[in-house]
Structure to design on (110 residues):
């Protein structure tokens, strides 16, 4: 659900300290590059843990751009975010590797 995604994003963003400066710097982070990275990464692996997607992020902007890339790819139907239950890890699947939801119990897909 969207609430689970926002909670997971909040958890990743909490790793970064809030800096009280007002200096504006351009970050070399492109949405197109993150989308391409996600597509390439998901081609090589059937699924990725939510935490793995952000393990290489060093700034808040990298986390935010990665999150937006996940949303864009989910909207396009290229990936799916799945959580087995409210306390388990979020997993990101490429469309070719989607988990089968039980017939009598819909999964938490976003």
């Amino acid at each position: 659900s969207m609430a689970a995604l926002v909670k997971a994003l909040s958890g990743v963003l909490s790793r970064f300290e809030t800096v009280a400066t007002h200096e504006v710097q351009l970050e070399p982070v492109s949405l197109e590059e993150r989308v391409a990275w996600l597509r390439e990464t998901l081609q090589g692996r059937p699924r990725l843990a939510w935490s793995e997607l952000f393990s290489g992020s060093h700034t808040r902007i990298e986390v935010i751009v990665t999150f937006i890339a996940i949303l864009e790819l989910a909207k396009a139907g290229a990936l799916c975010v799945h959580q087995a239950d409210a306390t388990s890890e979020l997993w990101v699947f490429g469309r070719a590797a989607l988990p089968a939801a039980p017939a009598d119990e819909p999964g938490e897909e976003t």
